Amino acid sequence: MSKLLIIGSVAFDAIETPYGKTDKILGGAGTYIGLSASNFNVDSAIVSVVGGDFPDKYIELLASKNINTEGIEIVKDGKTFFWSGKYHTNLNKRDTIETQLNVLADFNPVVPTAYKDAEYVMLGNLHPLVQLSALEQIENPKLVVLDTMNFWMDSCLDDLKKVIAKVDVITINDEEARQLSGEESLVQAARVIEAMGPKYVVIKKGEHGALLFYEDQTFFAPALPLEEVFDPTGAGDTFAGGFIGYLTKTDNLSFDNMKNAVIYGSNLASFSVEKFGTNRMQELTKKEIGERLEAFKQLTHFNIKSY
Ligand code: AMP
User: Which of 179, 211, 280, 295 can pair with 275 through a Cys bridge, CB separation 3.0 to 4.6 Å?
Assistant: First the structure.
């Protein structure tokens, strides 16, 4: 069975949406990715750091999903990374209210020995040099996927470009793709980003689905139109976790299988937004994922002949 190594923040989030407000709850890119990928029962581990204020029950929750937590360092006298965000009535728009790096500020990732031979690597949202340092510890990965955000484009673009040059796939949202490439058209943005290194570019468009670009081929996966979206936080990470979780499980890097991975990413992200924080991902069942796959098929299936 292939192994999946996930690097990403494990955090406290405080979220405000038009539907309500939460105080510090479990969040972080690594957390969402791990919970999402765990639906494929793959052998996975998270590398991250938390402070002494991080409750044991959250680590136990990850472990209960068969995620190896040995690589989550606990800095006893430090504070866990904290992020707070506020969404507008249009849930596609959010403002970051606060980012407290805390223990993430001096994080030196250590990949557990048992995962140095991981075939699949997910570099979740973290400082690009931390992502690079973790990547350098992995012997011979088959596929490396990078997720990042505007925060790093604004603060350390040169470092970010170094890591982008070393990965196979980048997942990025539409606004960030425009910022990174300087191009307004997403097709042109994907071309510019491909030239920076990644063979595959996945552009996430929130409630408007996701695009996969590879050489001269393009694939589009819709997002499921949902009646209610409570909290979009972590949807991008959940998407990435579904994408790489499926690829780790199937161990097949054909373009057709990459398309399936994008569909699974959208499938899992559609659950994540139904409740605050990670709540929906904690209780999700295989049966629900299977039913939603059918809903996705129905959504895009049509039977038409040319005239
Ligand atoms: P998303 O909604 O997919 O962008 O992911 C939101 C998650 O990313 C939250 O759970 C945050 O804890 C985490 N996050 C936000 N900003 C950062 C950052 N600068 N570094 C690492 N993780 C972050």
Answer: 280
